[in-house]
Write a structure and sequence with these properties.
- By secondary structure, the chain is an alpha/beta fold.
- It has two domains: 190 residues, Rossmann fold (3-Layer(aba) Sandwich), CATH 3.40.50; 207 residues, CoaB-like (Rossmann fold, 3-Layer(aba) Sandwich).
- It is built from 13 helices and 20 strands.
- The strands form five sheets. A nine-stranded mixed beta sheet has the order 8-20-19-18-17-14-9-12-13, sandwiched between helices.
- Strand 1, helix 1 and strand 2 form a beta-alpha-beta unit.
- Helix 1 runs parallel beside helix 2 and helix 4 crosses helix 7.
- The protein is elongated.
- The protein binds cytidine-5'-monophosphate.
- The site of cytidine-5'-monophosphate has 15 residues, from helix 11 and strand 17.
Length: 437
């Protein structure tokens, strides 16, 4: 395997689960691939595996006691320059602490001080794993960009058979390689993402999907995707602009999933507060005109273009080069607005180098008709409809519910769920449609 581990500094956090004995094999695999591994153990983990084992394997002192650190290793020093922090096994207790931002032992303190990608491999009893508290904590981790490696189903140390068995060292090793080579941007811990979902029949039209499945990671390989996201800002004068409430979350989630599935992703983004998803190339723009220029400079290479941005329909015809002053003798001012280019329609109507083009229809009424009309008018291949009059989905919320149409009618309906899961379903549908064309 072409591993990405050579000379990478990896912190291996070991917590007090029975699976801690497997961490020795994991540690060995990482070292054999060229990584420089530093082990951090919780006090409970030391009851299960001796620190001497890890010290012999890594050649570094194992960090356990935060109060020893003045003379030995500091949590901040350990975190500094790390390329990846891997917690394997991650007990329910440590997962809860990470979710809460605790720093009550060497492992949690070092993790809190780390700025590198974090990967956790949960290992625990099935009921503990399925407990809403643990699931909520895992969601918090996923939403924060932490990679959660879904535990396997199988025989557990407690004697029962169920989900909660830590992934095997070889599997974790391979996930770590993928993360470090930018191939994985998102690993879903979602409890429904079990293997049984893989056995679902191929999608048929119309499709009602309420659950998600583990996606084959090669689905996007070889495809170049452009995604527009976020709002645009249309300048009025140097200090004022017209914008909208788009958070960009949906477009960023799509970019994250597309990169996870192996695609080459360029995210053309209006101003947002979001972090660039792992492995995604991001181009920042402000206005609709700038967004169009950015899209046009990538479009000839692209296989897929997804217009997820909430582009302002109009811009100020003549923005003032200096700040507009309030005048005592004028009760109103007039701004003349002119139409902005329609970015997704410009792409949809291209005569050559036209990528598979997907638009969004954020509607408040007459939903399906408006969506279908836009599909035709903008010459799109797919349109994704969402109801923005419902406050719990759409703009600025973390959840969404969408219907997807092509020229033949409704292709899919994805029930209300997190934007990240919706993004998986959408990207899976887009990649499969493009590949079947
Ligand atoms: O016409 P409407 O704004 O409702 O269409 C929404 C779809 O068109 C979205 O996919 C959005 O990203 C795209 N759009 C665009 N350029 C515009 C306006 C909308 O790309 N100027």
């Amino acid at each position: 395997m072409d591993t990405q581990l050579k000379n990478r500094k990896i912190i291996l956090g070991v917590t007090g689960g029975i699976a801690a004995y497997k961490s020795c094999t994991l540690c060995r695999l990482l070292i054999k691939a060229g990584a420089d591994v530093y082990v951090c153990m919780t006090p409970a983990a030391t009851k299960l595996v001796g620190k001497d084992t890890f010290e012999a394997l890594t050649g570094h002192k194992v960090a356990i006691d935060i109060f020893d650190e003045a003379k030995d290793i500091s949590h901040v020093g350990l975190a500094k320059d790390a390329d990846l922090f891997l917690v394997a096994p991650a007990t329910a207790n440590t997962i809860a602490k990470i979710a809460g931002g605790f720093a009550d032992n060497m492992l949690t303190a070092t993790l809190l001080a780390s700025t590198c990608p974090v990967v956790v491999a949960p290992a625990m009893n099935t009921n503990m794993y399925n407990n809403i508290a643990t699931q909520t904590n895992l969601s918090t981790l996923v939403n924060r960009g932490i990679y959660v490696l879904t535990p396997n189903e199988g025989e557990l140390a407690c004697g029962i058979v169920g989900t909660g068995r830590m992934k095997e060292p070889e599997e974790i090793f391979s996930d770590v390689c993928s993360i470090l080579s930018n191939r994985i941007a998102y690993i879903n811990h979602h409890p429904q993402l079990g293997l049984e979902q893989e056995k679902l029949p191929a999608p048929q039209k119309p499709l009602e999907l309420t659950q998600t499945r583990l996606l084959p990671k090669s689905l996007g390989v070889g495809l170049k995707v452009i995604i527009t996201a976020g709002p645009t800002e249309e300048q009025i004068d140097p200090v004022r602009y017209i914008s909208n409430n788009s958070s960009g979350k949906m477009g960023y989630a799509l970019a994250q999933v597309a990169a996870y599935l192996g695609a080459d992703v360029t995210l053309i983004s209006g101003p947002t507060n979001l972090q660039t998803p792992f492995g995604v190339k991001r181009i920042d723009v402000k206005s609709a005109v700038q967004m169009l220029h950015a899209v046009e400079s990538y479009v000839t290479q692209a296989d897929i273009m997804i217009g997820c941005a909430a582009v302002a329909d109009y811009r100020v015809e003549n923005p003032s080069p200096i700040k507009i002053k309030k005048k005592d003798d004028e009760d109103s001012i007039t701004l003349k607005l002119i139409k902005n280019p329609d970015i997704v329609a410009t792409v949809g109507h291209r005569q050559s180098h036209r990528p598979f083009t997907v638009g969004f229809a954020a509607e408040t009424n007459n939903f399906e008709q408006n969506a279908k009309d836009k599909l035709v008018k903008k010459n799109l291949d797919l349109i994704i409809l969402n109801d923005v009059s419902n406050k719990s989905i759409g703009f600025n919320s973390d959840e969404n519910e969408v219907k997807i149409f092509d020229r033949d009618g409704q292709l899919a309906h994805f029930d209300k769920q997190s934007k990240q899961v919706i993004a998986q379903l959408i990207m899976e549908l887009i990649f499969k449609t493009v590949r079947n064309k």
